Amino acid sequence: MKWRSALVTAAWIAVGTGAGGLGAWQLASADAGSSADAHGRALDDAAVRRALTANTHPATAAESSELPAPEPPKSPDPQGTPTVAGPRTAPDPRTETVRFTGGTATAECRPDGRVYLVSWSPANGYAFDEDVVRGPSAVAHLEAEPDAEDADDLSYDITCTPAGARVRRMGDTDD
Predict the structure, then answer these.
(1) What is the rounded distance in angstroms from the CA atom of residue 126 to the CA atom of residue 9?
(2) Is the pLDDT score of 17 beyond 80?
(3) Which of 15, 80, 123, 162: disulfide with 103, CB 3.0–4.6 Å?
(4) Distance from C-alpha of 57 to C-alpha of 63, rounded to nearest angstrom
(5) C-alpha separations of 52 from 40, 65, 89, 106, 167 in Å
(6) Residue 140, helix vs strand vs coil
(7) pLDDT band (50, 70, 90) for residue 16
(8) How far, in whole angstroms, is CA 93 from its chain's centroid?
(9) CA dist., res. 122 & res. 83, Å (int)
(10) Strands (DSSP E) along the chain, which ranges?
């Protein structure tokens, strides 16, 4: 019976040693800076366009120079002279964390001016009730309830302005 235990222990040691060696080899080959590692390097705009045009793996398209970058569409100006129009992209939503007495909230300000609460966390001694208005809407709303029985709830509206997310304390609505 002792020989079986020794055999199992030896097998586990061999498997662990092999796995450790394989992991070390993998790390060493990744640190060597091989150009075959497409996931370890960033692509510039031209390489991304080539990859999308070629409909191939980004590393293959980035390394091939046979495909030209696509031309942006041309649009005529009022005098009839064609001009090159750049690509139109919608601005990305901005995500900010706002802090207030009852806690914090992470708000996403969308390009159309609406706000969306990504997450919220109460401060020590507070809890948020379940009446959170998350959005996306013009105004998001949270209510922080203190642990103390005789303390008033703290009601907050969160909106998006050109300067970013803003929090405003609202009056107490409890009777």
Answers:
(1) 53
(2) yes
(3) 123
(4) 10
(5) 19, 14, 16, 33, 41
(6) strand
(7) confident
(8) 11
(9) 53
(10) 74-76, 82-84, 94-100, 103-109, 115-122, 126-128, 140-146, 154-161, 164-170
